[in-house]
Predict the 3D structure of the following.
Amino acid sequence: MSTVAADLETILSSGIRLAAPLAFAACGEYVAERAGTLNVSVEAMMLGAAFGSIAVAGLTGSATAGLLAGVLLGALVGSVHGALSHRWHVNTFVVGLVLNALVLGLTSYLVTVGDLGRHQVAQVSVPGLRDLPVLGAPLFVERWPVYLLLALVPLTWWLVERSRWGLELRAAGENPEAADMTGIRVNLRRRQALLWCGALAGLGGAYLAVGEVGSFNQNMTAGRGYLVIAAVIFGGWRLGRTLVGCAVFGLADALRLALPALGHTVNSQLLISAPYLLALLAMLLFTTRQRRPGALAQPFRRAS
Amino acid sequence: MAPEPALRLRGITKRYGAVVACDGVDLTLERGEIHGLLGENGAGKSTLMRILLGLETQDSGAIDRDGRAVTITGPRQAAALGISMVHQHFSLVDPLAVWENVALGQSGPVRRAAVRAGVRAAAERYGLAIDPDARVGSLSAGERQRVELLKCLRRDPAVLIMDEPTSVLTRAESAELFAVLRRVVAAEHRAVVLISHKLAEITTATDRVTVIRAGRVVLRRATAATTEAELAREMVGREVTLGAAVGVLPHAPAPAAPASSQAALRLRGLTTRPGLDDLCLTVHAGEIVGLYGAEGNGQKSLGDVLSGLTVPDAGTVEVAGAPVDLRRPGALSAAGLGIVPEDRHHAGVVLDLSVAENLVMTRLGDVSGRVFVDRRRLRRRARALADEYGITAPSLDSPLRTLSGGNQQRVVLARELSGRPRVLVAAQPSRGLDVGAVEDLYARLRRCASDGIAVLVISTELEEILALTTRVATIFRGRIVGELPTAQADAERLGLLTGGAA
């Protein structure tokens, strides 16, 4: 195999692995935003779940149980965020930022308490297809949770676009007053959307830990939650484009990791900021506000 | 035994602090009738209806539905009890399709095909033509109202509440709406509550009428046994001389000052996309020009341009012969143009600032030293304006939110006129005001004209145009399509001039 093809395969491979956690979380953030919450705590959801998944995997000896725990922990963060911002009407950004700081601090402390060890879910590799040139290894040799995306993406789309729940939460995100008049429980729908967001962001974070890396280290999500928010904005609040955004950011991250191996020497600290720079640029160039939910980030309380 | 009334309210009382919004209100609603509920803004109509929908809870009193006492905890439960409301401020979600909005009002799984077919069938049955796949945001006000009504009717309500349904409709659309309501009542035996402060509407469309004033029922009668004059008197609590708006006088007297030849306001080729298409209009000092047309023909864009909210794509605005640089904030106001915007809550006032602050906010320089606002001068000025314009407020320091619509409108008018403008633009000035407040507003606008101010009234209300203006221009799809002296205008001619849309 030529070296170009090999390099490409390496970059694609790690690009998909780096994009997957973003994609899981983006499916959640997308739902939260359609319901009207610009959910900043997606970072906390991912990081908390990443820690929790490794910890639970250590306690139970099962990486899959860890993955599940990550989902639950993410949902827990989502329910806390929901209760604070859509029941007691604390400013959603303040809640999000505080949760992010809290989870970062808490996990940074807990990781020093004891050795969490290494836990990783099984790898699957699809016979036959894995031998395809270039695309074979990146697409068909993966830790199994990646393939959950195949079900979760269509499910997310169906829930939002086709189910009554989705119709009601879109109404809550576009025009909460009208939705309320119609008899929709706006804040309940928003809390539920945050729960979904937490579960999926939790899955993303857990996948990062027990799926890809196999261990937890301090601040291991390193702002990926913010990239997810950027992806939804880049995607113009459309699921397909949001996932394209995740892929682009994932590939940029992979490229950053691959550059030294390819013989380029760039300041590594500078490189770390590359995906975020790219996210800024992408939002600047491709964002349309056209499909922005009408009441995004606006709290709803019935006027008296 | 006579059938139980569809709805009976007994002694409904609701207090907000010291204010009694509803004071022992009794209201009986029979099946098969259109019941008019008439009252000024703040009389307690809205509170009563919010109680019926479960958005508020009454302090005392009971509600019977088909003879059974019920407690209503929210819109969802109201709907389950067969009480549904068509809102004054629409309860539609713009980015969603018509069928999605209709589906929102129902329950169970969303079956796209079934809902769309249902919309088509209902549209046919009631004569409310509408495309189920259209996005609600792209519809005209009249069409939106149809969607709203369809959404309600699909729930099969026994009691249908219509809150000021015609405030954004043209005459033809209003007539069509009332025909549909009559069908709903006669053929399907529903009960309709029609909330309005338009007397002509109440007398033509309802079977019985209840008038409330200051939270109490002051009149309850068969519509045929009453007159507009009596209704107006009961509603306001005194004799009213509003002229054409209550249908007592066909025309207002022409203003004293003759129109001078000097153009105080000249709009040349104003174009905004979307909205205005090469709009040209001239208003002379001392005249009141009406800009008449069905909602959604560019009036809002024009209002935005004249408020300085939108910079037009092409065209100029000249005040007293000098072109205004529309890109500079405050240029219009500095040039001598005052505006009473269409939506005063969004563009006219700051509801949470005090009455005094709202009164002086555009001319803070007049009440400030070099750096600080002089509170004493501010209050003195505000007091003078409040007295001059008859603004009734608990105190000048209370938030503007606590004032009635009529008084809020007076605050805007007082503030705009305090700058001694050459031109006053009033967009839908009487919308949401009660009869007494409208009477006062009209008198003030006429006085402006006789003081030599050029007045432009943008309105969708034919009565308003006929009662107030000396010349009328009609707008259709962002263009002026006709102009004539108001004395030669009537509903038919103006209807033709507005592209047949009126």
In short: Chain A has one domain: 3-221. The two ends of chain A are 71 Å apart (CA to CA). The mean pLDDT of chain A is 91. Chain A touches chain B through 21 residues (CB under 8 Å).
